[in-house]
Request: fold
Amino acid sequence: MTGIHAPRSAAWESRVRDSFAAQAMMANMGASLGEVAPGRVIIEMPFAPGFTQQHGFLHGGAVASVLDSACGYAGFSLMDDESAVLTAEFKINFLAPAAGDLFRFEGQVIKPGRTLVPTEGRAFATKAGAETLIATMSCTLMAVRGRGLSG
Amino acid sequence: MTGIHAPRSAAWESRVRDSFAAQAMMANMGASLGEVAPGRVIIEMPFAPGFTQQHGFLHGGAVASVLDSACGYAGFSLMDDESAVLTAEFKINFLAPAAGDLFRFEGQVIKPGRTLVPTEGRAFATKAGAETLIATMSCTLMAVRGRGLSG
Amino acid sequence: MTGIHAPRSAAWESRVRDSFAAQAMMANMGASLGEVAPGRVIIEMPFAPGFTQQHGFLHGGAVASVLDSACGYAGFSLMDDESAVLTAEFKINFLAPAAGDLFRFEGQVIKPGRTLVPTEGRAFATKAGAETLIATMSCTLMAVRGRGLSG
Amino acid sequence: MTGIHAPRSAAWESRVRDSFAAQAMMANMGASLGEVAPGRVIIEMPFAPGFTQQHGFLHGGAVASVLDSACGYAGFSLMDDESAVLTAEFKINFLAPAAGDLFRFEGQVIKPGRTLVPTEGRAFATKAGAETLIATMSCTLMAVRGRGLSG
Reply:
């Protein structure tokens, strides 16, 4: 499963990059878009002390936030020009503490539905050069049309 | 279902308040502990422009982060003095945009298991004096003993 | 939260009962509709030895199946005459073994959206006269229109 | 991610096959174990009219039941001789109607934890020779020791 699909908008990449740039929370976290393909998005982020929990690791909610954006933009990259993207729900499993210097978040579309778009995400932490899978996400997006929301 | 149960630690409330105070992300978001009872925790937070998504609402991940803390501390309030709390997984459903001036997050324990503690969370937004349910969470916590983590 | 809402179809109750009667799996399990209200549905079922797991309790999937139907018909009771109901996703937490003589499954709508309908379910087991909460479900339904599916 | 890991029990395969054979519901559905490896289990099942929903497709709960067993035995295959397996929770996303002649269910371990074992499942339907992904599952298992449950 590659997560690569045919885009419905010729401007899919700029739509993704412009919308990501408008997410104040991602900028605040120091998260940046990496590789972007139709149906697949990577976000990277260095360790951020302002987003930690009580043991000094990244807060699970911080991991979930970036994975939600990765899944959301993976889905948004396949939506048409009239659609905004909303997250209907997601589930996240935490596999290991979010300890490391650098974090990578992958979102990919499982099925490019016209209204509902199921996606999956994986988060990895790099510490001393070794990468560990720290969380998996299952996320349902909804394409919303004609409500005046810019993507 | 009240979410009120018998605590296993005499110091349950200070354990919850001290651990919450150590979550840098909650302070960064402007989130503060409200009412705390054994098995039930409330967190409040004003609108925070640094934690928004592309339409100017609170990011779904921000909502998830505070709900995760509300559920986590609801569970931690019932754990014994030897236990730290970890989130094994959570699922969140988004019901309405996180638009408003003030947000309230409730976490409560469904079953006070010794190792696994299932909890539920609800997030509400207040706008122009009216409160709306914006998200529901189902979360599984794990009590971790003897690993040298302070709660 | 009562789960009671205004129905969109005058025939909501017969639509629910007729569709439930068409679910071969529910009949096969011995499950029957109990109280039905707009946005809220109860299903009951005696212990069924043909639907057990390796320890002799009801299989978690059997519990999930009836909860899915309870949530599905709670949502379907609020849909218009043109809509069929599909389950987009659900999550279930298991709190106790499904041991007992009689089981009760409650489904209720959290928000009666026109396209997506988030619902919640609770499953209870009665053993020696005492009722125990054995599972909770969070379920997202989708109203599907004009595809020739009868509800 | 292959899902193949080192087993903790020399008898892992017979433990899996014996326990699966004790699940009355799987036999009732006509489900049978296919390929079994440490951390990865396949279950197959022909279409079963007694397990359908109102449109004549397999009930979502039936799909969930077999995926739960596939995930459960993938996890159980890595547990030690003292452990029984319980499902703590699962989430399932439905991608397409469960229409077809033959169904295949894959469960695989994501991380072989000693107490909690996160797993993932995929369900496929074969119709007229073509296979379609119809559902994905994210499931958390728990290894339970010393409670007198046989696996």
